[in-house]
């Protein structure tokens, strides 16, 4: 099923013409399902899990899983593919974008001030095409339990989507891309790096935003966000989600995790909070299990993370973002790590996000992508 639409904006000179197509994509995957030992009965259980995970000794004395089982399942992934409206300006290069926790695919193309925050528009204006999708359990993709959605199945789905795109499926009139770049934000970066670890030739370029290999285990993320069961927080919106879906307690916990003063517009923090998406507790926990060290990746690799990223740099990326990333990507054709000045974890919503976008496309362009 597809719906094509042509968007031509005249209101903003910087918003490029783009041709977008929505797809509902069937995928069948095999994955190792890590089973959470104690599903939440209430927010008391959520708080208890968060404090157990954040314990200094969690690695040795806390085990959230009761076991793991190989599983095969079929889902539908909802995606959008956008290409430059003026096909003559297209590079034929596709960016496959995976969003992080707390967002849906609109992270890449928010409706608030697209000229300042839309990565899709920025990339389109430079001739790239962008394929962006709702991860399993989010937005219009298949709804599954928050105890089931986890890194293993999200990685398998991403691999599946990359294979389809490389064969010219779901790329509109572009057909087979000249090159494929995986780009992610946060958890979306973790699954992109994991896909390039198990399958080093999956893409020609790998861009990891809101990510580092030199952080804490992410427990600080949950302590700062103070998640609550989404269905209890907003039954009107989220009654259909089981207790495995959680979401930040309020606007300020969201700012604490995703923004850094003074590098944001308060209206943008409100927009992000009003459009936030619950995430699966198992996604938050399972990231630590998958191998994200893509040591055999030989394409072009980049890490770009807000200088003050709480989750991946414990609030300061300077001087740590390139270690041990540079040695992990020692086989990459080119590698750059950037601690992006001023920004917090939600890089695309930082005041000067377009400068970060420019660092990304400049680096890709300088390396043949
Ligand atoms: C691409 O689509 C064709 C036609 O539907 C299908 O036969 C092929 O398996 C798809 N490619 C992948 C990698 O799924
Ligand atoms: C982004 O803005 C912040 C403050 O809002 C500033 O500190 C930082 O230098 C800016 N980044 C760049 C790359 O100009
Ligand atoms: C990288 O490639 C080498 C040689 O083929 C192989 O032994 C190793 O297991 C690979 N590493 C990963 C992380 O897959
Ligand atoms: C993180 O960065 C610091 C500072 O460069 C470095 O000393 C440390 O070894 C890095 N951690 C890892 C795991 O490489």
From TrEMBL:
Annotated keywords: Hydrolase, Signal
InterPro entries the UniProt entry points to: AB_hydrolase_1 (IPR000073), AB_hydrolase_fold (IPR029058)
Pfam families associated with the record: Abhydrolase_6
Signal peptide range: 1-17
Species whose genome carries this gene: Hyaloscypha hepaticicola
Single GO MF descriptor: hydrolase activity
Protein name, entry field: Alpha/beta-hydrolase
Domain AB hydrolase-1: from-to ranges: 94-349
């Amino acid at each position: 099923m597809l719906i094509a639409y042509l968007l031509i904006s005249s209101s903003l000179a910087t918003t490029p013409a783009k041709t977008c197509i929505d797809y509902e994509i069937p995928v069948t995957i095999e994955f190792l399902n890590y089973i959470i030992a104690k599903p939440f009965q209430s927010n008391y259980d959520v708080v208890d899990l968060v404090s157990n995970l954040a314990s200094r000794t969690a690695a040795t004395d806390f085990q959230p899983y009761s076991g793991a089982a190989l599983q095969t399942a079929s889902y539908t992934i909802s995606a959008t593919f956008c290409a430059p409206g003026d096909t003559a300006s297209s590079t034929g290069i596709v960016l496959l974008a995976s969003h992080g926790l707390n967002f849906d695919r609109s992270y890449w193309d928010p409706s608030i001030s697209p000229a300042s925050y839309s990565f899709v528009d920025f990339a389109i204006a430079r001739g790239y095409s962008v394929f962006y999708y709702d991860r399993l359990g989010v937005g219009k993709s298949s709804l599954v339990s928050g105890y089931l959605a986890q890194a293993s199945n999200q990685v398998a789905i991403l691999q599946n989507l990359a294979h389809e795109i490389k064969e010219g499926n779901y790329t509109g009139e572009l057909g087979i891309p000249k090159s494929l770049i995986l780009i992610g934000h946060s958890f979306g970066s973790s699954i992109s790096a994991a896909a390039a670890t198990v399958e080093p030739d999956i893409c020609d370029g790998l861009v990891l935003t809101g990510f580092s290999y030199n952080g804490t285990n992410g427990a600080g993320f949950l302590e700062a966000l103070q998640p609550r069961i989404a269905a209890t927080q907003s039954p009107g919106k989220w009654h259909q989600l089981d207790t495995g879906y959680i979401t930040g307690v309020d606007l300020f916990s969201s700012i604490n995790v995703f923004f850094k003063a003074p590098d944001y517009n308060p209206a943008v923090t409100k927009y992000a909070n009003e459009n936030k998406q619950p995430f699966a507790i198992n996604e938050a926990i399972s990231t630590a299990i998958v191998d994200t060290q893509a040591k055999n990746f030989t394409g072009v690799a980049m890490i770009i993370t807000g200088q003050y990223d709480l989750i991946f740099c414990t609030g300061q990326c300077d001087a740590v973002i390139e270690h041990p990333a540079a040695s992990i990507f020692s086989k990459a054709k080119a590698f750059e790590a950037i601690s992006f000045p001023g920004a917090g974890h939600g890089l695309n919503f930082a005041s000067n996000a377009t400068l970060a976008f420019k660092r990304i496309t400049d680096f890709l362009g300088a390396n043949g992508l």
